[in-house]
Design goal:
Mean pLDDT: 89
Low-confidence stretches: none
Largest sheet: 6 strands, parallel
Radius of gyration: 18 Å
Number of helices: 6
Number of strands: 8
Length: 206
C-alpha cells in the first residue's frame, strides 16, 4: 500500500531535496489491480490523447507496439524522443488526477517481444473486434469478476487497422479474446472503455 504525506520542503540542492513530513493524508487514487495497456502504434495525436486519458483512469503502465497493421512507423532514432514526450504527458496527467504513481511507458518493435514479460501477468485480455461483431459480451464481464487486489492485467489493443491473423494466432494460447460490447470502438477509445469497466467492477461495486 502507498502512503501519502503532506510535506514541507526544507532545502533544495542540485542533487537532493530535504523534506519534513507534516501529516499523513488518507487518499487512495489507485486502481486495486495493476493494468498495463499494450497498444498498437497509432497516429500521434490519438495516442497522446489515449495515454493522457488512460493515466487519469488508472492505468499502471503502457506498452506501445509497432504492429503489422500500424500505419505509423517509428525509426529507431525517433523512439527515445517519442518516449520522452509520452512520459511527460503521462506525468502531467498523473499529477492532475492525484495519482500516487507515475505510470511508465516502453516501446516494442513487434508483438513477439511481449512474450518476454508474458508470465508477469495474472490475466491477458486481447480486445478483438471480430468477437464484438459476433456479439461476444460475456467473457470480458465474467473475467472482470475474477480479478483480485494487486492482480496484474495486460490489456492488448490493435492499431487503427486491427490485428493481423499472425498476431491473433501468436497470442491465441496465452490470452482471452474478448469483445467490448456491441459497438466497434476506435483504437484510442477501446482502452478507456476497458479501464472504466474495470474501475466499475473493482471499485464502485466494492
Amino acid at each position: 500500500d502507498k502512503i501519502v504525506f503532506k510535506s514541507e520542503i526544507i532545502t533544495i540542492e542540485n542533487e537532493s531535496i530535504e523534506i519534513k513530513l507534516i501529516e499523513q493524508i488518507d487518499i487512495n487514487s489507485e486502481l486495486p489491480v495493476q493494468v498495463t495497456i499494450c497498444s498498437g502504434l497509432i497516429k500521434a495525436d490519438k495516442y497522446e490523447w489515449l495515454i493522457q486519458k488512460a493515466t487519469k483512469l488508472g492505468a499502471d503502465s503502457f506498452i506501445v507496439v509497432e504492429m503489422d497493421r500500424s500505419v505509423v512507423k517509428l525509426t529507431p532514432n525517433k523512439v527515445q524522443k517519442k518516449l520522452e514526450r509520452w512520459q511527460k504527458i503521462i506525468k502531467e496527467a498523473a499529477e492532475q488526477s492525484y495519482r500516487l504513481i507515475i505510470p511508465n511507458i516502453i516501446f516494442k518493435s513487434n508483438l513477439n517481444e511481449i512474450y518476454d514479460t508474458i508470465n508477469h501477468y495474472d490475466y491477458i485480455l486481447l480486445a478483438y473486434e471480430d468477437e464484438a461483431k459476433r456479439g461476444e459480451v460475456s467473457l470480458f464481464k465474467e473475467t472482470l469478476k475474477k480479478f483480485k487486489t494487486n492482480d496484474r492485467i495486460l490489456l492488448i489493443f490493435g492499431p487503427e487497422g486491427g490485428f493481423s491473423e499472425k498476431e491473433i494466432t501468436l497470442l491465441n494460447e496465452t490470452s482471452f479474446n474478448v469483445g467490448l460490447g456491441p459497438r466497434i470502438l476506435r483504437a484510442e477509445t477501446a482502452p478507456l472503455y476497458a479501464l472504466s469497466a474495470i474501475s466499475y467492477e473493482n471499485e464502485l461495486m466494492g
